[in-house]
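Lab notebook, bench 4. Still working through the backlog of constructs that have no structural model yet. Next entry is a single chain of 99 residues. Request: give me the structure tokens for it.
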Amino acid sequence: MLALRGWQGWYLWLVLLLIIGVDHPPTQDVLTPLNWRRRLGGWLTIAVFILTFIPNPLTFADPAPIFDGETTAITSPARPAPPSAWRVLVGRAARGVAL
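Model written out:
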């Protein structure tokens, strides 16, 4: 199911699984059970596998579009009126009156 919607490499793993199989050779001592440390290590290994499994491991995303700049007009706020003394000085200078 994953290969139909995602990574095509799952087909390779399916072929290897069919050729090799899932049988495991017997251990040297079948009668001795595992101690609690080895059981804990096995469960932690399974937990890490489940937490880090990625069903679609190799994907290449399309590059982000090139940013051409702002497309909306930016308006500046209205300038406050200059102080009245400033208007007087500017007005005198415009008329040629010495300051």
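Notes after review: The helical segments are 2-5, 10-20, 36-52, 84-95. DSSP finds four helices and no strands in the chain. Flag for follow-up if needed.
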